[in-house]
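Ops channel
N.P.: pipeline sanity check, posting one input/output pair.
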């Protein structure tokens, strides 16, 4: 029987230069799987806990305690077990931690080991990670959501909304969708440069110009789409990540500081309604704050049959919270971030719950990333149909897209859903 022979952890650096964990699992047959854990900047308060050292190293952001938890308790619990029972491995770590949000061991510790175990098992069987996690049904290349203009907590500018994304929905295959996206990105850069805007980029590779309103980025993106020779609405759609929890106050009022406006939940919903009637917007993420469930209910009633309404901070990849949203008919899609919940198995459970209830799933990176491309395989494995992993810039973002290009080449007759996701 093949078993887990060794587990190691190392403190490495993410794309923002902050420490994170690289976990490695070695099996008795010599197979090795490694994984690097990402980290978010805009985080929901119900996310699983990322354990940090809070000492003098790295401004308190070191992860040596989490690494030590891997070398001691997690090692002692998992060594000698079969790597091929992912749910058992993850369940044992959940039980070992004993908290609701991995506050003792750290979700960064458990997720690193969970992902590394899956990789080691796939390596032992000599099959790709997407095939190991998804079996014969892993056939769908996800439609990318490319963040090409940044605002909010992802950039130091006057734009309130966190991400302005393009979605290549009118193409037959993933590679053509990526080509169009890369061309639009280059045209966008030229437009911004010609207009004397700064063309430095944010955490996820998008540009961060100082613009007058939250509507102006959409207009500039659509200009770039046109100059690149593509059709807005038919071939390229717009998606927004508003991240509204970042600009709501204690009284439930949303402050659009860039525009000097304060809006109630109802007024913000009306604001979105005007935007989607004016522009080819097919998806809005975190349109209202994670605590504004009444506002979310109104948003879903008004726009849920027209566009994709994605819960990120709202659901935090948590099956229990997602079930509450399903029961209350709130939102119609969920953002999937494995480090919000802490293990591969729990992530799979959230995806499957969403899919059973006709909620769309978007596999997602974090703003603090690495060269690890686990989520690319994960998106194909679970047929999420969509992936959000930054613009066509910064190597830690391109690692995911390039992995998907490789998977497309490997698969026989892969599916690319494209515009079928968003037919109104």
């Amino acid at each position: 029987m093949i078993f887990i022979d060794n587990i190691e952890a190392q403190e490495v650096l993410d794309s923002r230069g902050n420490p994170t964990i690289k976990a490695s699992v070695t099996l008795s047959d010599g197979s090795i799987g490694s994984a690097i854990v990402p980290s978010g900047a805009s985080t929901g308060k119900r996310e699983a806990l990322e354990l940090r050292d809070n000492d003098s190293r790295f401004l308190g952001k070191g992860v040596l305690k989490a690494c030590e938890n891997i070398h001691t308790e997690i090692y002692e619990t998992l060594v000698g077990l079969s790597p091929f029972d992912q749910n058992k491995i993850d369940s044992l770590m959940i039980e070992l931690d004993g908290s609701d949000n991995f506050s003792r061991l750290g979700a960064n510790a458990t997720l690193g080991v969970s992902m590394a175990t899956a990789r080691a098992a796939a390596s032992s069987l000599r099959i790709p990670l997407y095939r190991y996690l998804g079996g014969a049904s892993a056939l769908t290349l996800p439609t990318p959501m490319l963040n090409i203009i940044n605002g909010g907590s992802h950039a130091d500018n006057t734009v309130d909304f966190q991400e302005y994304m393009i979605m290549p929905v009118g193409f037959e295959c993933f590679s053509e969708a990526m080509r169009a996206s890369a061309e639009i990105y280059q045209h966008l850069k030229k437009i911004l440069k010609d207009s004397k805007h700064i063309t430095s980029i944010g955490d996820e590779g998008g540009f961060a110009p100082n613009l007058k309103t939250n509507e102006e980025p959409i207009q500039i993106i659509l200009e770039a789409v046109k100059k690149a020779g593509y059709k807005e609405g038919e071939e390229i759609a717009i998606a927004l990540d508003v991240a509204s929890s970042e600009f709501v106050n204690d009284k439930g009022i949303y402050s659009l500081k860039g525009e000097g406006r304060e809006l109630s939940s109802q007024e913000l919903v009306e604001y979105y309604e005007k935007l989607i009637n004016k522009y080819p917007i097919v998806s809005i993420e975190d349109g209202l704050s994670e605590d504004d469930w009444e506002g979310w209910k109104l948003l879903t009633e008004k726009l849920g049959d027209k566009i994709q309404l994605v819960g990120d901070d709202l659901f935090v990849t948590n099956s229990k919270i997602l079930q509450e949203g399903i029961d209350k008919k709130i939102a119609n899609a969920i953002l999937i971030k494995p480090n919000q919940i802490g293990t591969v198995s729990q992530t799979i459970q959230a995806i499957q719950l969403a899919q059973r209830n006709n909620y769309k799933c978007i596999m997602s990176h974090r703003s603090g990333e690495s060269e690890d491309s686990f989520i690319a395989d994960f998106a194909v494995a679970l047929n999420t149909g969509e992936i959000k992993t930054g613009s066509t810039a910064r190597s830690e973002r391109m690692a995911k897209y390039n992995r998907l290009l490789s998977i497309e080449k490997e698969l026989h007759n892969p599916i690319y859903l494209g515009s079928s996701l968003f037919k109104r």
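N.P.: looks fine end to end. Residues 102 and 375 are 21 Å apart (CA to CA).
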